[in-house]
Design brief:
20 strands, 14 helices, four-stranded antiparallel sheet, eleven-stranded mixed sheet, disordered N terminus, single chain, 530 residues, alpha+beta
């Protein structure tokens, strides 16, 4: 409002959530301390494309609709909606919703938030590029008009997190922080959402403390009175902290520690496939690479070179060794568990180092070349080890990778600023939980409203046209055909090298109930501590 502020998974597809029933002593039943391998990048709900950051903030900020733990759309700040024309959706806003500072939520806040996500620092606008206009009909009714028919609008707005206009203007947060430019806003270190938990303390790289929002509109399933999040980058330290009781849960369990945890009767582990596909990307745009001994040209623009890199990587070996048999080889850039994913394209090209050497020679690099690759060392499951293993495989065909392994905060800035020649990244098709999300965000030609994660700047007009048609397709079979045709183009061009879908592994002390879905999101409002 415009007021001054007052200070269970199933292995074969998208699935029902798993209940994670883990035990603890009743004396500490309402406090919950959990860890992950990296910190939240910002509390600003519109300035990051980082999946973990957005996942964390879903406990603080809310959108008009949300995904539940079964990855189904359900009402949130909008209690109902209807499609009044092919391009217009009408939403009835929930009454009685209050922000953490006590101000009421209404249509003015929706319009303010829409303006905010279109400010220069915002990364959220890439998810909302299909929206043409948002109109206020009355204090609790708004309309969203899209440029063209957009059947999956509801999924697209699940991270359209609402902010209080009065609080934002009074606290220097009227515009989104620019994370890549390291420019903060008044919402970078403090938060004021409508969500189930409010932030009471924020110490970057140390801890973030939350308490339940006493006037939350929904009926809490949790019984928590205090939540403490601790970023613990060391895998060994996270495991030791769980076993010693320093933390109650770890939502990033290293694969090598699972056997040890399973031996402790006080702990239970739950595993499953995540939606996230880990892949390698290339600089498709520069005529000369930033990090390479090749001068005057970019070898990665040559499809033969990209195919050589693809065929030189033994993904089955990566899964067996680095991932301890707990990952799923990827033949395409979307998880087969995502809506719209074509199952027949999930077959990898054969591992063939001899063919890779021939391709390099044909491309004019019989002795190979060196090239830098930017990898995180604390973002994905065994990410640095994966890059090291890939480097060893590529060295056998003469492609000498210069490993640039960095913490998430540094790696994410470098990738966003395109300071790389090759890079490792992962994408889970979120927030849509749909193949279109990856096509639109990762693969489509980068503009102000699409391709926000297309850091390599691959561009293909035929691909873009098919994605545009898929966005408007009114029938699901037709939409799936368009998605398949688009993915077949990207696969044919070998614009990226998909590696595998990584696993999810959570662990907690007994007496704690959590729910694990394939989107790997900890929904604190569902956590119970006995």
């Amino acid at each position: 409002m415009r007021h001054a502020p007052r200070h269970p998974l199933r292995m074969g597809g998208l699935a029902a959530a798993l209940g994670l029933a883990l035990g603890f002593a009743p004396a500490e039943a309402r406090n919950f301390t959990w860890a992950y391998n990296a910190d939240v990048l910002t509390l600003d709900p519109h300035s990051s494309n980082n999946t973990f950051t957005n996942t964390f903030l879903a406990n603080v900020y809310e959108a008009l609709v949300r995904h539940n733990d079964r990855i189904e759309i359900e009402p949130a700040l909008a209690e109902s909606w209807e499609r009044t024309s092919p391009t217009v959706w009408r939403f009835n806003l929930r009454r009685g919703v209050t922000f953490h500072n006590g101000e009421a939520f209404d249509a003015d806040d929706v319009l303010f938030t829409w303006a905010r996500v279109n400010t220069p620092g915002s990364m959220a606008r890439h998810l909302l590029g299909q929206i043409r206009e948002i109109r206020k009909l009355d204090s609790h009714t708004i309309e969203i008009e899209t440029h063209r028919p957009f059947p999956i609008l509801l999924a697209a707005i699940t991270q359209f997190y609402m902010m209080d206009e009065g609080w934002s203007r009074a606290n220097g947060a009227a515009e989104a922080a620019n994370l890549s430019g390291q420019v903060e806003s008044g919402a970078t270190r403090v938060a004021n959402g409508t969500g189930p938990f409010r932030v009471t303390e924020r110490r970057p790289d140390e801890r973030t403390v939350m308490e339940p929002h006493p006037r939350w509109w929904d009926r809490p399933a949790h019984n928590l009175t205090r939540v403490t999040f601790q970023p613990i980058r060391s895998a060994a330290t996270r495991t030791a902290s769980l076993l010693s009781g320093t933390i109650d849960a770890n939502v990033e369990v290293p694969l090598q520690d699972i056997p040890r945890l399973l031996q402790d009767p006080r702990v239970q582990v739950v595993e499953g496939p995540e939606l996230r596909t880990i892949y390698l990307g290339f600089d498709h745009e520069r005529d000369q690479l930033l990090y390479s001994d090749v001068q005057g040209r970019n070898p990665l623009k040559d499809r033969r070179v990209r195919e050589a890199i693809y065929r030189a990587i033994d993904v089955d070996s990566l899964v067996r060794g680095v991932m301890r048999g707990k990952a799923w080889p990827a033949g395409m850039m979307v998880s087969p568990f995502l809506a719209g994913a074509p199952q027949d394209l999930n077959e990898r090209l054969p591992f063939d180092p001899e063919a890779a050497r021939r391709l390099l020679a044909e491309a004019g690099y019989p002795n190979g070349f060196s090239v830098g690759i930017v990898c995180p060392n604390d973002r994905y499951v065994n990410d640095e080890r994966t890059c090291q293993a890939v480097a060893a495989m590529l060295a056998r065909i003469g492609v000498r990778l210069q490993l640039q392994s960095e913490p998430t905060a540094v790696w994410s800035r470098r990738t966003a600023n395109r300071d790389f020649s090759m890079f490792m990244l992962g994408h889970a098709g979120l927030p849509l939980a749909d193949s279109y999300s990856t096509l639109n965000e990762v693969l489509r030609t980068a503009t102000q409203t699409q391709g926000g994660l297309n850091y390599g700047r691959w561009s293909n007009a035929e691909f873009d046209a098919l994605v545009a048609q898929a966005a408007e397709a009114g029938d699901e079979p037709g939409r799936r055909r368009l998605i398949r045709d688009a993915l077949a183009i990207e696969r044919r061009e070998i614009a990226h090298v998909p590696l595998f879908q990584q696993p999810i592994a959570w662990a907690a002390r007994r007496g704690i109930d959590m729910r694990q879905g394939p989107d790997n999101r900890l929904r604190l409002w569902l956590v119970r501590v006995d």
